[in-house]
Specification:
By secondary structure, the protein is α+β, with helices and mostly antiparallel strands. It is built from seven helices and eleven strands.
Length: 265
């Protein structure tokens, strides 16, 4: 049975900033709340920090989790309100039906595969030179490169919608200045790129001494409105995530009822 959890984070706690800035460290804490994680049932998580004073952690698990260890370290123990919430996810999944619309939020890692990056790193140059000098090597394996522009990030999402079981309807009015969208007055999908980040972090303390280059992760947070086209496909997307870098806080698509004032998944 899937569960969706929300854990409140206190950014002023001494251990909070290392977790908020390093997805690898946060991943370790998230997995620590699941008794027996299975590779066939991925744990998805997302850090929502649009209010930097009240960030919170969302986690989708396939068994009931425990988050006391995170609350004790970086939460709000003793403060008003619940330290964390854990809710059965099946009632939402049961609402999926063709044509039904929801508000959504997604933080993703929009990427492309290319054999000829425009600005290759030293490691990429070495790989390409080795492949060019090896006549028996028939095909160079592509490099996974993150999309950096709003236009390409938005295109990445729109191209993957159908295969994920949904479509993004056109907005009733064009959104002036929406990143990656057409100019004012032109029809535009009802989605906005709310935030984009380039995260650089190390997996181990020893790596910070120069043993290995940092991991670079480009993320984009989308908010908007979607329409269900295939309930089974969308269910799979909700439970398994959309796009790569899921262990680092990307891919968790969350839905919410639509409101008259706008979309806020």
């Amino acid at each position: 049975m899937p569960y969706l959890s929300l854990v409140r984070i206190n950014p002023l706690r001494s251990g909070a900033q290392p977790l908020l800035k390093n997805p690898h460290r946060m991943k370790i804490q998230v997995l620590g709340g699941v008794p027996d994680p299975s590779p066939d049932a991925p744990v998805l998580w997302r850090l929502d920090a649009h209010d930097p004073h009240r960030p919170h952690l969302l986690v989708l698990t396939h068994e009931k989790p425990s988050w006391e260890h995170i609350v004790e370290r970086v939460g709000w123990p003793g403060a008003d309100g619940e330290d964390f919430l854990v809710r059965d996810y099946e009632p939402l999944l049961a609402q999926l039906a063709v044509g039904r619309e929801f508000a959504f939020r997604l933080t993703a890692n929009p990427v492309q595969n290319t054999t000829r990056p425009e600005n290759p790193t030293r490691h990429q140059k070495e790989v390409m030179e080795k492949a060019a000098s090896d006549p028996e090597r028939k095909r160079l394996r592509g490099f996974r490169m993150g999309h950096r522009t709003a236009r390409h990030q938005m295109g990445w999402l729109l191209r993957r919608a159908a295969g994920a079981g949904f479509e993004i309807p056109l907005a009733s009015t064009a959104q002036a200045g929406a990143p990656g969208m057409p100019a004012q007055g032109e029809p535009a999908p009802d989605v906005q790129l709310k935030a984009g980040k380039v995260l650089r972090f190390h997996k181990k303390a020893s790596d910070r001494r120069g043993n290995r280059p940092p991991v670079t992760l480009i993320t984009a947070t989308f908010e908007g409105r979607l329409r269900v086209t295939d309930p089974d496909l969308l269910r799979t997307t909700l439970l398994s995530g959309l796009g790569p870098a899921k262990r680092y806080g990307c891919g968790l698509l969350t839905l919410a009822p639509l409101t008259e004032t706008g979309s806020d998944g």
